[in-house]
Amino acid sequence: MLKDLVTPENANVFVGKLGDILEKAIDKPLGYAINWGRIWSLWPVHIETACCSVEFGAASSPRYDVERFGIIEAFGSLRQCDLVVVQGTITRKMAPRLRLVYDQMPEPKYVIAMGACAITGGLYFDSYNVLPGIDGVIPVDVYVPGCPPRPETLIQGCILLQEKIKRMKARKFV
Amino acid sequence: MTDIMPPGLALKKVDERIMTLNVGPQHPGSGHMRIVVQIDGDYIVACDPDPGYVHRGEEKMAEYRNYITNVPHLERPVIHDSCNVLYPYVLGAEEILGIEVPERAKYVRVICSELNRCIYTMYWLAIYGIFLGHSTMFMWPAGDRELLIDLMEKVSGARVTHAHFIPGGVRNDLPANFEDVCLRQVNYFEKRIKEYAAVFYDNPILISRTRDTGVLTRENAIRYGTTGSVLRASGVDYDLRVKAPYDVYEELDVHTNVLKEGDSYARSKVPWLDMMESCNIIRQALQKMPKSGSVRTKLKPNPKTKGPATVYKRVESGRGSLGCYIVSDGKTEPYRVKMSVPSFRNLLAMPNLLIGEKLGNMPSVYWSLNYWPVEADR
Amino acid sequence: MSSDSENPATEAKPEEKPTPPKPAAKAEEKPEELPAFEKGISDKLVEKFGDKVQVDFVKEDRVGIKTSKENVHDVAQFIRDDLHYDHAESVTGVDFPADNEIEVVYHLGSYTESSLARQVLTLATRAPRESNPIPGQDSTKLPSLRDVFYSVEFGEREVFEMLGVYFDGHPDNRRLLLPEDWADLPPLRKDFAIKGR
């Protein structure tokens, strides 16, 4: 029966309709489950932008082990990732690339601005090649202050992000 | 102006067999930089490194700050080797300002500098491990370096950005009972890194992946002006701590590790051997250090210089010879600060080594050059 | 391996050559005596090139010489072939708007000659400076030393983008660190001011 309904011409329409139906169905009951799944498998993109990447590396070391909070080590493909941790200074050369990386990631996606440079430009407030914060490039969910932030601070930022995702509407991104 | 400066990377004409690949800046096998490689089948035929993604204009900023306030931002290029990256600037600033450094401060500097060399090398080793898909070699060094970070945290109060060296000495004296704790941790650390041989350096998979890849001959190592572990892995016996000792290195017995092969394996082994040498130096320095005394010559907040001068100072950092050229015109701010960084010098070897290699060997060759992109860009 | 095995090598060299210039150095230098070995290096250069090179300073382990842009290539060749310096550590550009000139400084070192291990030779030359620079097309040009010292390749590229000094004969004068769309003044010139400062 399904075979008769779906032809190559209307396959896309059919899938779209199915999506609409699903979207309504999972609004409330499944929203919680979907968010739960998102919280515990945050995949950061491997984009190192400056020196905070040292502390990001330390956060996945055995002592801090950010993986136990569901932040997986940053060695996945861009298409699987849903988290950008902007590790420090964004220069004028890097900014278009950061935007490109962000645009290529599938929804839903979250951004953590790590370090003073990513928030306001930090120490490099008067440099000719540094952006004063990344807000103008990509939207930020959580700011983690410090120069560089300690790994504990980064972990706290990740937990804050998880709290935020918990309160988001899952439907928005389906 | 724009039409004379070709935008970024205008590559030469390519024929159809050859494919151009952009490795980085978002790539698990690259740091904060882009390497444009052209491959014919599996072999790299052309390579064009494109640094500058972390170019923050430190040298321009240094012209707007005085000799003391330059300290925090000039250590940022290599925050996990922050003592060594500041060292030449501080030595240069002392000569320009005409300050003498107390004897104890020199020993404290040597200890901090060697601790930082180990911290840097362990992070480098961790990343080298994960680049080759060796997860244990990420976890072990990344965990063990925390021991030394704890020591540096006791000394300076910060995990990585110490800003501990200042013109005139070091910021604070060593905390009470530091000598015993340091000796204990360093001894344990040395025992620990010796175990890496069994899991990493004698590992047949590592050897087959890195032996005879990216061979840098002695002549080429000198010609490209490489430095540090890259140079010493190619059979050139050159270590500034021995050849041109600064501060109190003259009084310490430093052994230079030289390997002859010049391939990725040798380049990955020299920093590891250097770490054991650093442990020896720390033990010697702890023994010879004056037990008490001042560690800092007090300076005014905006110190006056002696007059126009140019200074070029070099130290041996975790990656190699690091120089700082300061031009002073007699004002309280430097006229020009130039950092001659080892990563930038070793970068020249990269395109020459990668040509003819398989693409799969790129990470092992690239990271064995002891390259830290943030430092190269400044 | 330790430092004391190295020092005699440094001291041994000056015995043979700079014996004639040593009394001369004493005679003209009233405040302090110039280090003999370094004085020997600068004397060899002066002997060869006469007044084409000016000795900027002779300090412990450091020799600074200045030369004009016409002679810098010959001087560099002499330094490589006869003085055995084999690599460049850095290439620095310094802007001097008061003199209307840009100075390019090469720091040269040697790995092969053990007596030169401590030494750094500073070779400085100057290019005319234009107030409205068009990098690559104005008179701010210098001969490239890349065929003498291969290791200056990236350093000269950096000086080109940071100060706008074009190096004639450099095979690859492209941008290195700055963004591709940089259309402002070269940033390390003194008239390029950071905003708000």
The helicity of chain C comes to 25-40%
Secondary-structure element series of chain B: EEEHHHHHEEHHHHHHHEEEHHHH
Question: Structural class from helices and strands of chain B?
Answer: alpha+beta
Low-pLDDT runs of chain B: none
Total beta strands of chain B:
8
Number of domains of chain B: 1
Biggest interface:
B-C, 50 and 51 residues
Beta strand count of chain C: 7
What would the CATH topology of chain B be? Cytochrome-c3 Hydrogenase, chain B
Order of helices and strands of chain C: HHHEEHEEEEHE
Supply the number of helical segments of chain B: 16
Contiguous runs where pLDDT drops below 50 for at least 5 residues of chain C: 1-29
Largest sheet of chain B: 3 strands, antiparallel
Q: How is this structure best described in words?
A:
Chain A: Its EC number is 1.6.5.3. Chain A: Pfam families: Oxidored_q6. Chain A: Belongs to the complex I 20 kDa subunit family. Chain A has one domain (41-165): Rossmann fold. Chain A has 174 residues and is mainly alpha-helical. Chain A contains seven helices and three strands, in the order ααααβαβαβα. With 378 residues, chain B is α+β, with helices and mostly antiparallel strands. In chain B, the strands form three sheets. A three-stranded antiparallel sheet of chain B has the order 1-2-3. In chain B, strands 6-7-8 form a three-stranded antiparallel sheet. A two-stranded antiparallel ribbon of chain B has the order 4-5. In chain B, strand 6 and strand 7 form a beta hairpin. In chain B, helix 3 runs antiparallel to helix 4, helix 4 (103-131) runs antiparallel to helix 5 and helix 5 packs antiparallel against helix 6 (178-194). The relative contact order of chain B is 0.19. Chain C is of the alpha/beta class. Chain C has a domain at 34-168: Beta Polymerase, domain 2 (2-Layer Sandwich), CATH 3.30.460. Chain C has helices at residues 3-16, 21-28, 36-49, 72-81, 153-163, and strands at 53-59, 62-67, 87-96, 101-109, 120-128, 141-143, 166-168. Chain C has a five-stranded mixed sheet. In chain C, strand 6, helix 5 and strand 7 (166-168) form a beta-alpha-beta unit. In chain C, 45% of the residues are buried. Chains in contact: A-B, A-C, B-C. At the B-C interface, helix 1, strand 6, strand 7, strand 8 and helix 13 of B face strand 3 and helix 5 of C.
